[in-house]
Each structure stands twice: as C-alpha cells, then as structure tokens.
Amino acid sequence: MSFIDKYLPWRQMKALGILGMNKRNGDYISAYNHRSHYPLVDDKLQTKHLAVAAGVAVPKLYAIVEVEKQIADVFEKLQPYNDFVIKPSHGSGGEGILVIIGRSQNGYRKSSGQIISEQEFEHHISNILSGMYSLGGLPDTALIEQRVEFDPVFADVSYQGVPDIRTIIFRGVPVMAMIRLPTRMSDGKANLHQGAIGVGIDLKTGKTFSGVWNEELVSQHPDTGASIVDLKIPNWEQILYLTAQCYDLVGLGYIGVDIVLDHNHGPLMLEMNARPGLSIQIANRCGLLTRLEKIKAIKDIPVSIADRIALAKTL
Amino acid sequence: MKNLHVKLLALALFLFASGLIFYKNTTLGLPLFPSDDIEVWSVEARLAFSANKGPIKAQLTLPTLPPGYVIFDENYVSGRYGLAFETVNNNRVAEWAVRRAKGEQVLYYHLQLGRDANKAFSENEIAKPEKTKIKVEVPNVPEYSEDIATAITAILGEVREKSADVKTFTRELLNRFNEKVPDANIQLLLSNIDTSKERVELIRAVLAGARIPSRTVNVLLLREGARHSKLTPWLQVHNEDEWLSFNPDNSKSKLPANAVIWQTGEQALFNVDGARNSTLDFSISRHTQEPIRLAEQRARKMDSRAMEFSLFSLPIQTQNVYRILLMVPLGALLIVVLRNIIGIKTFGTFMPILIALAFRETDLVWGITLFTLIVALGLAIRFYLEYLQLLLVPRLSAVLIIVIILMTMVTVLSHKLGFDHGLSVALFPMVILAMTIERMSLIWEEHGPSEALQQGLGSLAVATLGFLVMSSDTMNHMIFVFPEILLIILAVTLLLGRYTGYRLTELWRFRATLNKDSH
User: Beta-carbon neighbour count of residue B365 at 10 Å?
Assistant: First the structure.
C-alpha cells in the first residue's frame, strides 16, 4: 500500500478487497442471479420442495397455512409436536419467525420463555398471511416446521436462539463462511445488525477465528463468557458439500446459504438468500472481492462438488 | 470498455440536451438564469379622423427595428377595416381600408417594447444609430432661392471655418440655429418657418449646401403616463460611416435612452385618404414583466419549431402543475446520490421526495414541525393499535383514518390559535404519512427505537435537502424553460446506475476490517 493510500479509506478498502453494496448489486447479483430464479429462494416453500426432491437435508415441514380458514386446522396438525417454528414463506431478515419450544396450560412457550396464548398464536399466523413480513406486503403463506435442536457444541457460545452458519456461494464454489451466534442483545436472533456475533470460519479447516460483535472485535461470547475462537465446526466437510449442492438446486450464481447443525439430524439447510449481506466480511475481517475475482477469472468451474470444494479451499 | 453502452447512451442524451439548450439560449435568446423583472413599455398609437362617407384608406408607418429596443408584441384594433402591410423605403406601413365609413373613426396600434437586454449594456450603444454599410447618396447643392442664397452661403462659410468634420459641422450649424438671439442670416431663414418639421427640413437644406447627406427621423420619447404625445423629428447626418443623430432643438448629438426611432425617411408618418381632421397621437405606459415571458414571446415570433413544444404554450394552471412536477426528477436524482453514493437509509424510496414537495407549500420549519407532530402522534396511536391485534389491511386503513383525523385537528386547532401555517398541513401526502407511521412502528418493534429514529431522522434530512434543491428558483427556472435538462438528469442517473464503488457509509461500516492493518 502506498503512502497516500493509507489516508484514503476507500483505497484501503479496495486494497483489502472489500465488496461494497453497489458493486455487489451491480456486478454480482444482477450479473449472476437470473431474476426468474429468484422465486426459488425467496419462497421458502419452493426452496424446501426443491431441496427435498434433490435430497438436501432440511428441517421437516409440519404444516402449511395458506388461507385464514386453515388456521383452525393447524392446532390439530400440530398435536403430535411439542416444539416447532412458524415462519413466513416470503420473509426476509429473520422477520416474523416465531419459535415455540413447548406447550403450557395457557398456550405456547416461546424460545425466550414467554408464554403466548392460542389467540396470539393465531394472530401471528394471520399477520403472516396478510403479508406483514413479506417483501412488498403481498399476501403470504405461513410454514410450520421442525424446530432445530442445535448441536450442544454451540451451547456455550449462544444465548437462546439457534446459531447458524452462513456461507457465500459464488458459481457453486463456497467463498466465505461465518457462524452467527445469538446474544441477549439480539434477542435470540442470528442477525449481525441486531446484535448477534459474527465469527469467521476458515474454509480449509472449519475452525473459527476471532469474531465481531457490534463492529468490535471479540474473542468471547459477551453473555456466556465462553471463547468463540478456535471452535471446530462439526461435520464441516458435510456442510461445505451441502452448500455447494444448493447452487445446483436453484441455479443462482451468487447466493448465501444458511445452515444449522441439528443435534439429531446433522447439518440442515435452513434457507437461501439471493441478496446475501456484506457483514460476513466484517466477521472474517477479510474482503470478499479478492476471492470472487479469483473465481470470476476461472473459465470453467468444475462440475463435481468435490472439485468445487477443493477449489474453495485454495482461496 | 466497461459499461460502454450506458456511457454512450448517457453521452448521447447529454449532447442532445445541451445542444438544444445551447440553441434555445443563443438563437432564441431564452435566458439561462432567472433575472429580475424588466421594464416593458406599452405604446398605443391612436389614429383618429372624420370620414367623408366614402371609401377610406389609412396608412401608418410602424417602427421596424428600433435600435436598442426589442418589440415583444404588437396588435391592431381595426374594427371593420381590412388590414394589410407593405414596406415603403425600409419602413413597415400598416394600411387600413374600408369601402364606406361615416363620422368619427379611430384606429389603434398597440406596441409592447423594452430595452434589448442583449445589446443594451451601455447607454452609448443604445444611442448609436444602426450602422449602414450602404453607400449613402451625397446630395447635390440645391438651387436656393435668390433671397436666401447669400444668407446660406454666409452661414456655411462661417460654420466650415469653425468645424473639422461632418459631426462638428452639424453641431456648429445647430448651435447657430439654437442661439437665444440668432444672427441676422439665421433669422432671415427662420422667418417663414412654423413647425419643427419644417425647421428640420430647412436645416437639411442648408446641410445639402455643404453636400452632407441627412435625413429626418421621427422619434418617440418614452415617458411614463404620457397622453396625446407626438413624435419628435430628429436630424440624422451621415459621416460616411454611420448615421449620427442630432436633436435639432439643442444640438445634442445623442439619442436619449428613452428614445425610440419610429420612422426614418421622407414619406409621411401617416396618411388618410377620404377623411378630414386626421390626427395621430401616442399614449405610453410602463409596467414590469417577467423577462422569461418576453423572451418566450420573442422566440415565438421567430417561428421556431422548438417553441411550439414549449411548456409556455400550456394554460397557466397546467404550467404551474408542471413547474412542480418537473422538479421531481431532480429530487429523484438526489435520492440516488444520497442512497447509492452516501448510503443514507430512508423510509421508502421516494417518500422523502413527496414530503419535500409538501414542504414547498408549508415552508421548511413549519413543514418539519407538522410532519414530526403528526408522525409522533400517529406512532403513539399505532402502538395502541398493536395491542388490539388487528389484521394488516384494516390496521393500515385505521392508521390512515387516524392520520386524516390528526391532520384535521391540527388544522382546526392552529386556525383557532391563529397560526395560518397549520392550515397547509392538508397538503401532506396522507397515504405516505400512514405508511411511514406503519413502517416506523415495525422497525421500532423489531430493531429497536434507535434504528427507527435514525431512519426517521434520515428521511427528514433527505426531505429537507430535497426541499432545498427543489425550491431553488434557479433550478425551477432552468428546468421549466429548458425541460431538456431532464434528459441530462436521466443521463446522470443512468451513469450512477452503474456506479459500483463504495458508499460513504460503508467506510464507517467496514472500519473494523480496516483497523486490522493498524493492529
């Protein structure tokens, strides 16, 4: 870096290969993501059907609510289950997701321990149906699916909620990954700007290195005090394989894949995102651009998933 | 090259628009910047006569291109008369004709004119008569009658002695005519002169004796409120370069700034066949007008295709609507810059622009106050509605109804308290307000109050900036007079659409990554 570059933050950012919002939208999303494929990832129901058909592991679907009338039937369908998750099919940014961890006399217990009545439960579903959480406010579908019981590996480093692993896949090659750990501040949610911790993962080894919380570098979980550095993500190879598989599923060139580790079922693909955020760069303290450009320069990306993962590890 | 297509398109748009602007500015004279109102003189020439019960033909010489002045508009009140125009000795002549007329007749010619802004930079320039490269015929020495010939020869001799060129010769001669007690020779010449016109003719005859080309010009002096004003004859002499004007009554050699040359040459100013007692007089009044209207009228006279599609051809009411509407693209461009280059977050993409449009009517401070008041009250009620667990569309409708109730209350209350500004709250886009309240409450619940307030303040700041840009008189004038500026705005927007550099706020967002180096 030259002398002048040191004092020009944008030159510094460029030298670090940081991807900005405009470049992401203009040069990657609009160039590699065909709009006709968007519904495949925007509609979680479609994603789930695709995944099931292709043999990609996903949380089990318990019930679908498409119209207000079906809400009454839901209680019956949910009878066999004690815990489940309700989410809007077109939700974004984790909005509208209700996690029920058990039943009580007066209703359901949320992940935070709060009890909600059946009436509130119904209201939440009808809010989803009316499009409160969907992009553009269009009427939506509510999905009720298996609640992920996260792997105890992460018990020490998350405060309520489920930690998930976000991987950016470019042309079928995983280019960067992080694990998002919920905190008290994020209210159990795994969104970085809501206060979750982002911890970069080394693609080669599947080990975490120091994380970022509220744009500050941290090496311990602020609520539990446990170290978040050098954690070995279990089943890392399987996770990488799963993410690369997702590319074949939807045919979008630039996606983010969210994976959770279930205690019983192993890695499950939770959702995909055609406009994955840029915070992953902060968690990894490394720019995406350098890696993306390397992949961009390769004329023929290998077809086999194993080769693509091998390529990812050279980045 | 990267983005070649977009760049070429933007370039083409830019070149086309700037070419049109250049043409309209230079050729049609439409001003680029708004200027203060300018003076416009309204002149009414009134030609009155008594008809002789027969056919009538009335001729009036009209001003052609008075030096230093621009004719903005002219029209004729002709009654039953047929009107035709012809050119006589480089003068335009209006000719009214009627088969039969009886009694007192009046014909009017209205003229609107003003200083030529493009040429009238110095008083000198105005006073300078038009330059004629045409060779002016040098008159022969006239055959003076016996009794005055010696007097003229004597005068010419004395004057020639005390002068060097045509200009000084003429002035010296006029000085002699204008002395309080002229010498005997002059008195002899003036002995049977009655009108100032005859006086000028006499002076011209004397000048002819020295072979100096001369002519009479009829000058209208613009004086506010003048009634029954007449034209004043002035003398012009040619010095082989240009015509020099002289006031025959005081030897001054400059036309005053308020003088309009109405007619030059020999032929009669007006002539009415078949009538008696014909008189011509002038009424003059002065008023001010927007310069752009004048420029536009003048451009229209030039018969340009570009003016046929001008916004000025619309009815005034529609014009006023477009005055506001055409500012919206500017606001849209501002949004692009603020969001994609700076990275400010706002509620909804164009919501701040609609709020800014409302600010145009309410004034900035009142606008911000009323907006904040309504949104704050609306938010409070919206939080209560949350408790009722309403469905989305009924809840949105409820918020909209509440917004309108709040607006009504604010208006009535502020009227009672005597704040008239409160009345303009009705101009706020209520649906936008309702959506703002709804979205703000969602963000408040989901991302916390600080995020909601941050976006709320961001929107307000963008609206304020938008207001400042969109209410600029200069921008308003430029876009309305040169709507092709919209193509330039479009070109810039297209170019920004391919801007893939960092946003300013990203420098802050990724600062943790930057710090890695210094650690």
Answer: 10
Split at pLDDT 50, 70, 90, the class of B125 is: very low
Give the one of A130, A194, A281 whose C-beta lies nearest to B510's C-beta: A281
* Count of H-run helices and E-run strands, chain B: 19, 12
Q: How far apart are CA B462 and CA B4, in angstroms?
A: 32
Q: How many CB atoms lie within 10 A of CB B492?
A: 16
Residue type, B53: K
User: Quick check: A215 and B509 CB within 8 A?
Assistant: yes
A23 contact residues in B (CB cutoff 8 A):
500-502
As a residue count, chain A comes to 315
Give me the residue label for tokens 């977050």. Answer: B345
Interchain contact, A10 vs B502, CB within 8 Å: yes
**Where is mean pLDDT largest: A153-162, B70-79, B367-376?**
B367-376
Joined together, the tokens standing for residue B387 give 């408790």
Which domains does chain B possess? Answer: 38-136+217-237+246-289 (2.60.40.2250), 138-212 (no CATH), 320-518 (no CATH)
**Residues, chain B, total?**
519
Q: B503 vs A23: CB contact, 8 Å cut-off?
A: no
Interface of B with A in 388-417 (CB under 8 A): 389, 391-393
DSSP structure string for B132-144: --SPPPPPPPP--
pLDDT on residue B516: 52
Q: Which residues contact B283 (CB under 8 A, 6 or more apart)?
A: B43, B44, B46, B226, B227, B228, B229
Residue A107's alpha-carbon distances to A93, A225, B114, in angstroms, are: 27, 33, 85
Whole-structure pTM value: 0.68
The answer to whether B343 contacts chain A (CB < 8 Å) is yes
Sorted by where each starts, the structural domains of chain A and their CATH numbers stand as: 4-41+151-314 (3.30.470.20), 60-146 (3.30.1490.20)
Q: What is residue A46's three-state secondary structure?
A: helix
CA–CA separation, A276 vs A297, rounded Å?
Answer: 21
Question: Are B501 and A20 within 8 A, CB to CB?
Answer: yes
3-state class percentages of chain A: helix first, strand second, coil last, to nearest 5: 35, 25, 35
ipTM > 0.85 for the complex: no
Structure tokens at B407: 């607006």
Checking if the pLDDT of A282 tops 60, the result is yes
Please check the confidence at residue B89 and state whether its pLDDT lies above 80. Answer: no
Instruction: With CB atoms and an 8 Å threshold, state whether B512 touches A217.
Output: yes
User: For chains A and B, what is the number of CB pairs under 8 angstroms?
Assistant: 83
CA dist., res. A149 & res. A83, Å (int) = 10
Contacts of A287 in chain B (CB under 8 A): 513
Distance (Å) of CA B437 to CA B38, B376, B487: 48, 8, 35
Question: Average of pLDDT values for B509-515?
Answer: 74
pLDDT grade, residue A267 (50/70/90)?
Answer: very high
Residues B30/B293, Cβ–Cβ less than 8 Å? no
By CA distance, what is B348's nearest residue in A?
A: A136
